[in-house]
Amino acid sequence: MSAQPSIHPAQVIAGKVHAAHLTDTTRAGVARFVETHGFPPGLAVIQVGENPASTIYVRNKVRKTEAVGMRSVAHHLPASISQAALLDIIARLNADPSVHGILVQLPLPAHISRDAVLDAIAPEKDVDGFHVANAGKLAVGRRDGLIPCTPMGCLILLKSVRKNLAGLHAVVIGASNIVGRPMASLLLAEGCTVVVTHLKTRNVAEETRRADIVVVAAGHAGLVRGDWIRPGALVIDVGISRIETPQGTRIAGDVAFDEVAPHAGAITPVPGGVGPMTIACLLHNTLRAAQSAQAGKQKGSPP
Ligand SMILES: Nc1nc2c(c(=O)[nH]1)N[C@@H](CN(C=O)c1ccc(C(=O)N[C@@H](CCC(=O)O)C(=O)O)cc1)CN2
Ligand SMILES: [Mg+2]
């Protein structure tokens, strides 16, 4: 009998199921919070302009925030709003004790500085984890900051298939502040050897072929091909692109799923993989921010 190549279909990681579990845990935590303090955690969501994808994500965030028993405050602002007026709204939310989390949906219109807006959010209310203070804490290995939701979701999914990631070789494709860089910091904190590839990397496939873990956040549909992946590797696909096909629009990830799945040990699908974890982690961060705010008050209150 001739030897057959050892091809085992990958475990498909059900992000939706993991997101539902995390959301259940948050819902229970919110109930305990309300019982203890007599009011719910509050999340303010700011959307600027009419980006259709943002409208869907914001609507989902509001719905899911309320579904776990938290209070949601939505601000939908015109695309023409000035940066100063937006900063003013953020300042008011920073000062509002009933608001524990604040997020500004990205992308922002071109006339507004993303960094100026994100850094205006009080770091302890920055439930996206994008403020430079939270990014800095993560980068230096501190655990007391708020962690960006998508990379946190990726890590939870990775650990659902392999508890101990120490010593593994991880390759992150994409160096954005929202996914790639914080993902690299989280993997480093888990004990991985981490390579971050980006637009200027000469041969990305050469890097991924060595990897036990590949996290792809490139925004380039189907970038990662079957022969980029070493047998048994864990593959996390953060990409979401809308592709026009003769059958209509379809959502595609950055990984050519049908080619990669036969080689991978485990792989996330798109849709239904990382995406649902992003909002579940946002709710988790909001509860955590509310708990920290209350603990801070108790510490600071007179005996
Ligand atoms: N302030 C922020 N802005 C943006 C973030 C963010 O975390 N904070 N991330 C993305 C958008 N995003 C949440 O805001 C987000 C993207 C995708 C999903 C999701 O569940 N995707 C589904 C597919 C849904 C579809 O498009 O049809 C999936 O992958 O299964 C949730 C949240 C950019 N902006
Ligand atoms: Mg396999």
What topology emerges from the helices and strands here?
Blueprint: E1 11-12, H1 15-37, E2 42-48, H2 52-67, E3 71-77, H3 83-95, E4 101-104, H4 114-118, H5 132-139, H6 149-161, E5 169-173, H7 180-189, E6 193-197, H8 204-208, E7 213-216, E8 234-237, E9 241-245, E10 248-252, H9 257-260, E11 266-267, H10 274-300
Parallel strand pairs: 1-11, 2-3, 2-4, 5-6, 5-7, 7-8, 8-11
Antiparallel strand pairs: 9-10
Helix pairs in contact: 1-10, 2-10, 6-7, 6-10
Bound molecules: ligand LMY7XDAE and magnesium ion.
Description:
With 303 residues, the chain is α/β, with parallel strands linked by helices. The protein has ten helices and eleven strands. It folds into two domains: 38-124, Rossmann fold (3-Layer(aba) Sandwich); 148-275, Rossmann fold (3-Layer(aba) Sandwich), CATH 3.40.50. α1 (15-37) runs parallel beside α10. It starts with 10 loop residues before the first strand and ends with a helix. Magnesium ion binds next to loops. Its EC number is 1.5.1.5, 3.5.4.9. Residues 13-128 form the Tetrahydrofolate dehydrogenase/cyclohydrolase catalytic domain.
